ornithine carbamoyltransferase
Amino acid sequence: MAAAAISGGHLVLSTPTSTRRPRSLPLRPPSARPIDASSASAARRGVAAAAVSSPAAVPSTGKDAKQLPKDFLHINDFDKDTIMKILNRAIEVKAMIKSGDRSFQPFKGKSMAMVFAKPSMRTRVSFETGFFLLGGHAVYLGPDDIQMGKREETRDVARVLSGYNDIIMARVFAHQDILDLAKYAPVPVINGLTDYNHPCQIMADALTMLEHVGRIENTKVVYVGDGNNIVHSWLLLAAVIPFHFVCACPKGFEPDAKTVEIARSGGSKIEITNDPKEAVKGADVVYTDVWASMGQKEEAEYRKKVFQGFMVDEALMEMAGPKAFLMHCLPAERGVEVTDGAIEAPNSIVFPQAENRMHAQNAIMLHVLGA
């Protein structure tokens, strides 16, 4: 079988060098490593890291633009080449795992602290399973285990967990919490989700696009629904890799204006509209999410009224055209933002997308740990 790799935002097939693992390259080929030796050593546990990721709404400038962040907090903290190398690594390591090969154990002897202020099935299972499959051990810390910022200050939590673990993943509410964790933790910190953005999800989505659409560049991605953290992450990807992104949302539910400008400054075509039927025409991907996220459930009934006409159903997918795929970051409220028929249709890639959370995150962890 052919091995998959990525070049310039496109999926490329090449002849594998080994028959033991279909569709994979040899273990840890130097050309597939997403970071060089100097940046890898600086990312390892126990090394003081001065290069802390800046908030996504403020692009790096001057000398800071040359610093390699030790953390994975926003997609636009990295350049296009680095993002594509991470995705390329995800394809290679996914092929190893799917083939049953368990000899690649780069995380052997390493531990990861998983901090969950917000619970999640996909984030926990994908990180914990992925880290285990590559040889590591993950420690789950639920909402009542730490109460970060309440029972103990975030800066103290960051340094204590860094003393026990090689890497920290956190899924939190306030974006400032992930910034503070990264600032005070000497080990790499991965953003598992904040109210502002969800970079791991969009890396999984980009991987899914490469597998099914064949490219990211020069595609049209249409998001239908609330201009939330998923939209912000798509916009930050568009700041790095140029493509056409449309957010179709009700008035008053638009994404952050500064983040929209960051995406436009990267050369992508960005549209914010209130007409989903017009927006989806010619789409490569139609994407949706729940209308009321965690922490907004008291608004659920109100939002159902405001979002009338923004449900992704079979009729809307037909308007998008025959090449359009449906994506949803899950969990889905079937019959609310998406119909059962749409999510179960042949052009739905929702469940391969969910599986790719693990594979994309594996590559992100390999990158920040220099493995």
In short: Residues 199-354 form a domain with the Rossmann fold fold (CATH 3.40.50.1370). The mean pLDDT is 86. The first strand starts at residue 3 and ends at 7.
